[in-house]
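Changelog excerpt

This revision adds worked examples to the README so contributors can see how folded entries look when concatenated. The first example is reproduced verbatim below.
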Amino acid sequence: MIKIAIIDDEENCRVVLRETIKQFAQECIIVIDTYDANHAFELITKGGIVPDLVFLDIQMPGCNGFEFLQRFTEIPFTIVFTTAYDQYAIKAIKYAALDYLLKPIDQDELEESIIRYKQLKKPLNLTLLNHFKQQLSNNSQFDFLAVPSLTEIVFISIDDILYLKSDNNYTQIILNNQQVISSRNLGYYEEILRGHHFFRIHNSFLINLKKLKKYVRGKTGYAEMLDGTCITVSARRKEEFLDLLKLN
């Protein structure tokens, strides 16, 4: 059984999580259900009730989600943040490769979070938490990206990315001096890197326009990257690509 903790000051959110888990996630058992993060900390550290998966609100009175997590020297459970929609906060969560549920909680998304937990079963890494906090407090452009693979989380500088290549449900991320394989698909990175001078010139390729060496004209044409890689520009993306480069 997967032991679940729900820590959220919003009663409606806890009710939805509780009822949905009971109805659709029969392999789960709720061991903590509270509005008070301080109380949850006492139950875990002194009461010996250690959950496997914690649904944790970020903004709570008394002790917020960050303060709760920082009280642990090691975090022995996986975290799914529950949060009301905040574009910047959600973007910071994605850049830190953390899992989250938007309020109001959707049943399908909750089930997907539990499936992801069963596939990975990874406790929260404190480095990821600090990365998230740094991104959340940084009002400027995001500079670093946490990239999840099947075995680890790799932190990369966005400026070091040459291009990304689709590999079925995975993504090959080609950097200046290495390659990283991510367990997220290319569409995920197309969304998260929007606004960072990236453009999807082909269904399988997302390129960093800052790393473009030249564009070679032709029926479709191709982009040559700084490392010498040549990537065909798809016919349906060619006009937008040339407009972006101001070559039309």
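The second example, added in the same revision:
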Amino acid sequence: MATSARSPAPNAGDSVLDFPDNRLLIDLCGELDRNLVQVEVRLGVAIHRRGNMLTLHGGDAEREQAEQVLRALYARLEQGRPVTPGDIDAAVRMPAGPAPATARVGQLDMFGAEPLEIRTRKKLVEPRTAAQTGYVRSLFRNELVFGLGPAGTGKTYLAVAAAVSMFIEGQVERIILSRPAVEAGERLGFLPGDMKEKVDPYMQPLYDALNDFFPARQVQKMIEERQIEIAPLAFMRGRTLSNAFVVLDEAQNATTMQMKMFLTRLGEGSRMAVTGDTTQIDLPRGVASGLVEAERILKGVEGVGFTRFTAADVVRHSLVARIITAYEAAAKADD
């Protein structure tokens, strides 16, 4: 366990890291060395602190990766950026790369170096896995992007973040967020209220993502001014969506006809992101998922990008990844 009291002297084969700025080292270690403990648990090493030095004990491969992670996190602090549990998780998952330039660059220019960043009003959003990195690149490079995989992999969150970033940069004039109003395996009955009150429960995950990137009052004002629109998939029929970033969430619950209808709404100056999990289809038995059909039909079409996520890309609680893995193993055993 990470400790600074009575740390053992380094042995042959240990790695010793020297960090010159004691103030930054304190931030690197975290309160009660919790950041070091997180690195220890994730990488299977022991870390001891003595003065401005950290000594790493463990296997060669584990020590080498821990050294890369700690140096990358220290570089973040030198740039004035914080180190959070999520940043540590990302550093562990992602291969080491050159530190990003501190100067402000365009969204596409920044993709030449790691880590990638999506700028929003409230925060910087960074991909935490290789699949997320490829997904972010695809969101900015392709006009239509499919993000496929289990819950908790950041498919919708990163798509909404990209939409917000493009809106802030003036690349699109509107953000349109949609999802099918399909109940997840249970009948909820008739909901009270007007149309907005009836559909809002289905749209809440999209509101949650927006509120992570914009102040709540600004989100409400932008909705009132139609700069942001959140609507069920059925409301897209007959429209041409121009100069907008359009996100379709839970797309596995769109029928084949609904999916074709949605994809053909794409207008000039627009981008689309379609996200879903083909293992969580809530359509009636016998009704084909439009997402499954779209993946089969559109693979290889120029301007269309596909990113497939797995349980290894889950960035929620680590137990979520283990739950998904267990369900996948059970499904294979039943086949």
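Reviewer comment on example two: The radius of gyration is 23 Å. The first helix runs from residue 22 to 29.
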